[in-house]
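User: Please run a holo structure prediction.
Assistant: Happy to. Please share the sequence and the ligand.
User: Here you go; the ligand is zinc ion.
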Amino acid sequence: MKFQYLGTAAAEGIPAIFCECDTCKKARASAKKNIRTRSQAIIDGKLLIDFPADTYYHSLLYGIDLAKVKHCLITHTHSDHLYPKDLCMRRPGFSSLGATEEECFNMYGSSGAMLEVNSVLSKYDLDEKRGYISLNPLEAYCENRVGDYIVIPLEAIHDVRACPYIYIIKDNAGKTVLYAHDTNYFSDKVWEYLEKCDLRFDFVSMDCTNGAVPENGYIGHMNLNDNAAIRERFISMGIADEKTIFCSNHFSHNGVSVLYEEYSVLAKEKGIITSFDGMELEF
Ligand SMILES: [Zn+2]
Ligand SMILES: [Zn+2]
Ligand SMILES: [Zn+2]
């Protein structure tokens, strides 16, 4: 499986769109891995995860032909993960694509997330009945076929108004990913599912909005200590081992030590790698 991070920041990006804090100033000055656009990833060049406003920029930067991508998982409705107005660019006059089954863009997420997309599409007379975009609500803890993958949504601990899911994604060769954005340290129900699921994870991408802050006082996101606790628990449960890649991702300028050069050193000590925009992994 080939996994690529396209965007790795929280809502405001790093540097934040209207900010001159120290972190944002340093990020602007140093650039490279400290420039983080809004959250998105792609698996094997064909399964998108999330659709933020930066999708268009990502497609140009990383050479992704969005007209050929057929499947997109939505984690939740916050704007750094979902910008439905750009989906309206698939309508006649804005796109050469039609409404055939082969050309349809298939979206998946919680029923609340799909309702949010539909409410925007319907304003442009582009709701799912027209065939340009298909909206597929998924049930938590159920296996779903999404293109060439099995996808299992799990409940996130995050703003409930944003209808959040995290996702287990498994390919035909058995390679298995947990994409855990955005969420707090997982709920007991998620841990019970993971205990019984009979899976072994090759890659775990973990919310780290708060960076290396010692105490995570913000419900709905994690810090480095939470990420390290998840890693240890996965290994002790036998659903991960020394080959499993654990990665901190989804950073905010409000977090502590979130600049790549600082955070990646701290994370490495805990057996965790650090995402950056464009990072590619193969496992
Ligand atoms: Zn987010
Ligand atoms: Zn800032
Ligand atoms: Zn969010």
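The domain at 2-282 is CATH 3.60.15.10 (Metallo-beta-lactamase; Chain A).
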